[in-house]
Design goal:
The protein is of the alpha+beta class and about 180 residues long. About 30% of the residues lie in helices and about 30% in strands. It is globular. It binds coenzyme A (COA).
Length: about 180
């Protein structure tokens, strides 16, 4: 299947919505039982693009359908977190396990560096081995597990944080947080 990874457009939003709502209905990957509407996805897309953040889509070049998407946004709103982003990635159920998740997340690293970001965070449900494996494969390190901070389908959920340095500015490597003020 020929696949193109590219910036998402408004025309991709129905495909992105279908993938997102399937994930909401069938998994604990998203801590919500509330399906989104097309208007919600449009607001999400406009916010990302308005902030200069990317939203990538994987397109099946044979029929133009959306096979997955990935994006990042601010980790937390306080200004001191401005060099840290949190990303998300979702692949259509029938396209999983073929490396597409990795192909969607990898280009986010360069995009984040070009925006002067230093760390990328993944918040992953502890019962999501495919995502844990994907992120480990992409160089993310386990940073901690928050126990029972989420709930869905009538049970508590543990959230694993993984993190990846994006550039060479870590304090541990350089002896100081070089460039952290920018
Ligand atoms: C998580 C997700 C994005 C991964 O995308 P993908 O295209 O399937 O990922 P990849 O094929 O690039 O890699 C998945 C890796 O997990 C492994 N994997 C898949 N299912 C697994 C399982 N049940 N247990 C352990 N490893 C598993 C695969 O073998 C692969 O590792 P490998 O390359 O070493 O063999 C995709 O499964 C998905 O969209 N799931 C539903 C939504 C979701 O969980 N999003 C992420 C929220 S944090």
């Amino acid at each position: 299947m020929p696949i193109t990874i590219r910036d998402a457009t408004i025309a991709d939003l129905p495909g992105i919505l279908a993938i997102y709502n399937d994930v909401v209905r069938t998994s604990t990957a998203v801590y919500s039982e509330q399906e989104a509407t097309l208007e919600d996805r449009r607001a999400w897309f406009d916010q990302r693009i308005g902030q200069g953040y990317p939203a990538l889509a994987a397109e099946d070049s044979s029929d133009g359908s959306v096979l997955g998407f990935a994006t990042f946004g601010d980790f937390r709103p306080s200004p001191g977190y401005r060099h840290t982003v949190e990303h998300s990635v979702h692949v259509r159920a029938d396209a999983r396990g073929r490396g597409l998740g990795a192909r969607l997340v990898e280009p986010l690293f360069g995009r984040a560096v070009s925006l002067c970001k230093h760390v990328m965070i993944a918040g992953i449900d502890a019962a999501n081995p495919a995502s844990l494996r994907l992120h480990e494969k992409l160089g993310f390190e386990h940073a901690g597990t928050l126990r029972e901070v989420g709930t869905k389908f009538g049970r508590w959920l543990d959230l694993v944080f993984m993190q990846r340095f994006l550039d060479g500015r870590h304090a541990r490597a350089a002896g100081h947080a070089a460039g952290a003020g920018r």
